[in-house]
Amino acid sequence: MEIFLDKFIQFFSNLDILQYLTKKWNLLLSIDAEHFFLAILSILPWGFTVYYFQPTKFLKKLLICLSALLIGILSTEIILSLHPIFWPEVNFKPKRTSILSQTVHIAFIQAGVMEETFKILGILLLSYIVAFNKTIKQWTKDVVLVGAFVALGFSLIENYVYIHKETSKAIVLNMFIGRTIFSSNIHLLINLCFALFVYKTNFQETLREKILLVIYGFFLAVVQHGIVDFFLLPSSKFGTWLAAAFFTGIWVWVARDLRKYIYIYEKLISQTQQEDKEKIQTQDSDFHLEYNGHKKEIHYNENSEAEKVLDSTSQSEKKELC
Question: Which residue, 146, 185, 214, 276, is most buried by CB atoms nearer than 10 A?
Fold first, then answer.
């Protein structure tokens, strides 16, 4: 514990903001355009799918997606910066004598806990700003959009780092295909699943039940991430097929819940609200017509009485003259 605190204090005491920003700017300028383009392509099909089916207005949807991508990119930077503090002496090449324990540690702790913690914190923070109705204290459907694009922002940088490490074009192509099919996909699914758990808190009655559901969603995200990485890290064909089968099951689960809670439930709510609005407008118009008709009738009656008074006055005047 003391070693960890010393490392933590040393990190922030040696942190020069200007030097840090200069380093990041130089890193930005040194980005390989071809590899970065491949990283964009690796998240594009998944991002387009979520964006296209999300029932939100165009401009709002675009702003949420860009903000969430930025949060995902920042979460990657935070994880990369804090990783050597939490595990300063970790050997990333597992020893043959303890490959199982090393794989479990990397898959569930270093990858699962570390990555999901900061991604989910970003999802909750941004969702509270753009996808939480503070009047009725409920999450809106846009929490799904935030979860998806935070995950894709994280995948964008992670995919670039892995693709950029390779020098052979054949290996780069294989890495691009693998990151597109597996890594981007699983990050998206895990955080979509968590975002749906957040949305489902709208149907819980007490605050305790809502908090427990969010905590359950977090631990489920860690377990999902850990299982997939555990199968993929040894780079065996059997493990790859197991991972593919696992996240195919998650895809079915997420697609079912998206259809049930977002694409159908939200559509029914919108239709009901529209029908209520039209009903109110119809009632208002009927009231105005009735009111205006009654008003005209009053004016008509008033005019009739006035005419009677004038007639009676004129007749009395005629009699006096006679």
Answer: 146
Taking each helix axis as running N to C, give the angle between helix 207-232 and helix 237-257, from 0 to 180 degrees, rounded to the nearest 10: 150
The owner of tokens 């998240």 is 43
Three-state SS at 139: strand
Strands 132-133 and 138-139 come out as antiparallel
Kindly report the number of other CB atoms within 10 A of residue 192's CB atom: 24
CA distances (Å), origin 159, targets 171, 182, 212 = 14, 11, 33
CA-CA distances (angstroms) from residue 52 to 56, 57, 242? 10, 11, 30
Backbone angles phi, psi at 132, to 5 degrees: -130, 120
Provide the 10 A C-beta neighbour count for residue 49. Answer: 12
Question: Residues 236-245, buried b or exposed e (16+ Cβ, 10 A)?
Answer: eeebbeebbe
Name the one residue in this structure whose structure tokens are 């039940």.
209
- Partners of 133 in beta bridges: 138
At residue 39, what is the residue type?
Answer: A
> And the tokens for 46?
């998944």
Instruction: State mean pLDDT over 255-284.
Output: 71
> For residue 267, which amino acid is it?
K
Q: What mean pLDDT is predicted for residues 139-149?
A: 96
Burial class from Cβ neighbours inside 10 Å (0-12, 13-18, 19+) for residue 43 reads buried
Chain segment 41-88, per-residue pLDDT in tens: 999 999 999 999 998 899 999 999 999 999 999 998 888 888 777 766
Start-end of H helices in 87-206? 99-104, 114-130, 142-165, 169-178, 184-200
**Alpha carbon 52 to its chain's center:** 14
DSSP state of 138: E
| In the chain, domain spans | 33-245
